[in-house]
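Bug #77: duplicate submission created two jobs. Keeping one. Sequence:
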Amino acid sequence: MMSTTPAAHRIMRILSAVILLATGGIHLFLVFDGVGGLLGVLFVLNAVAALVLAVAVLVLRGRLAQAATVLSLLFLIATLGALLLALTVGLFGITETWTFTLVPQTVIVEAIGIVVLAVTTALVLRAPAPARR
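Kept job's structure:
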């Protein structure tokens, strides 16, 4: 079994936060670029959730850190899943095309983010519990 250092945990948490901020930033950019209506509202909520989760992944420790990383992983899976649904069969009456602004880049960032957050989640869940005082 491989042992990981606290530095590796810290690096993976920072990378996870950066990916979450990138995902939220993409959605916020799209709102400022003209996406409106229901989709615009959902994109703003996505950006806010990404910011909250990024801060949580960096700041929280113990069981709360475990919850934050699991929720962040599920968040990115849901975000990518929603985009893929919009690209294929449509979602909430919205259909998307590969040629729309930042769609290919978003798929790449979110797919990488899922891998990074999966590793981070595994590290955080496997970390020994801190000693009680």
